[in-house]
Design brief:
The structure is a single chain. Helix content is 28%, strand content 27%. The chain is α+β, with helices and mostly antiparallel strands and 356 residues long. It has two domains: 245 residues, Zn peptidases (Aminopeptidase), CATH 3.40.630; 91 residues, Peptidase M42, domain 2 (Elongation Factor Tu (Ef-tu), domain 3, Beta Barrel). Bound molecules: zinc ion.
């Protein structure tokens, strides 16, 4: 396992659902500490400031460290746990999945269950089972055993899955690439810039609670007060059966994506073109992507104060918002190369052009 694989393994396996990012935040702080000066907003986003050869422009790199998860809603009298979603789950991906409940007494493993198929009528079996019919089973045989394990309403619940390098050696399987891949890219870029000149000051921000409505970006941007912003995200890969290229043409291994559109932001066109031109000049493959049904931290950052020129760069991932998503190493490496190239060129006069 090389350094990037080790980083991606640690950062995707770390626990951190919206509102309970503590475990992943402490890992991110450890990675950030040698790279710049750390600060934090009051809901938990962490910011690493790396000063270059000029105090301005202030460049914000944002990636969210929360992952989609759940919360304990209530415990039934038989000792099963009913749960709330934190973020946008597709209910069909949930059955049979393992989860970790973060209780005050420690971690408790469980599995998401429903009535066994043997007991379902053929009519019932043909229907989609919704989350409300599901429960988490921690292997208890009474309510007392659940209480003794420390489980209480309000406890966060994290998907349980591990990082794997897949057969080709070039693709990786893990939970939470959305958006730990973005946070990992901030770390990799700040590491690369330790030995390079950059005519600006960079603020790498690992934000919280994006999956429940871009909350951490709203407060982190107040700390940073950026002149320009680049959002680092996972994007959707459309190279799976049942998706036609008109819906989504992004493919694994064909380069990072540059978002031309999402539901809540149109990028600054001059900044977008700077990214596209830099990629062409350096022969870095990119894919232009439009997400009609989603948004990023950019949605609030680009509207901060009188406006912030913003663009989104993504790494395509298959099966996002599940326990098992897949990314391609070359997309990651190319995104980092592209970002380093942009950041070493982003000086005050260039940024002034974006809003001229
Ligand atoms: Zn995301």
């Amino acid at each position: 396992m090389d350094e990037i694989e080790k980083l991606l393994k640690e950062i995707t396996e770390a626990h951190g659902v919206p509102g309970y990012e503590t475990p992943v935040r402490s890992l991110v702080r450890d990675y950030f500490a040698p790279l710049g000066e750390l600060s934090q907003d009051k809901i938990g986003s962490v910011i690493c400031c790396k000063t270059g050869s000029a105090p301005a422009p202030r460049v914000m790199l944002a990636g969210h460290m929360d992952e989609i998860g759940f919360m304990v809603k209530h415990i039934t009298k038989e000792g099963y746990i009913k749960f709330l979603p934190l973020g946008g789950w597709f209910d069909q991906t949930l059955l049979g999945q393992r989860v970790i409940i973060k209780t005050r007494l420690g971690d408790v493993i469980g599995v998401i269950g429903v009535k066994p198929p043997h007991l379902l009528s053929s009519e019932e079996r043909a229907k989609v089972i919704t989350r409300k019919e599901m429960y988490i089973d921690i292997g208890a045989t009474s309510l007392d055993e659940v209480t003794a394990a420390g489980v209480r309403a309000g406890d966060p619940i994290v998907p349980h899955a591990d990082f794997n390098i897949m057969a080709s050696g070039k693709t990786y399987l893990s939970k939470a690439f959305d958006d730990r891949v973005g946070v990992a890219m901030i770390i990799s870029v700040l590491q690369e810039l330790q030995t390079k000149e950059h005519p600006n000051t960079i603020f790498g921000a690992a934000t919280v609670m994006e999956e429940v409505g871009v909350r951490g970006a709203t407060t982190a941007v107040e700390v940073v007060n950026p002149d320009v912003a680049i959002i680092l995200e996972s994007d959707i890969a459309g190279d799976v059966p049942g998706v036609n290229p008109e819906e989504c043409a992004n493919k694994l291994g064909q380069g990072p994506t540059v978002l031309i559109y999402d539901a809540r932001m149109i990028p600054n066109l001059k900044l977008r073109d700077m990214v596209v031109d830099a990629a062409a000049e350096l022969s870095i493959p990119i894919q232009l992507s439009a997400i009609e049904g989603g948004a990023t931290d950019g949605s609030v950052i680009h509207l901060y104060k009188t406006g912030v020129p913003t663009v989104v760069i993504g790494v395509p991932a298959r099966h996002i918002h599940s326990h098992s998503s897949i990314i391609h190493r070359s997309d990651y490496d190319n995104a980092v190369r592209l970002l380093v190239a942009i950041l070493t060129r982003l000086d005050a006069s260039k940024v002034a052009e974006f809003t001229a």
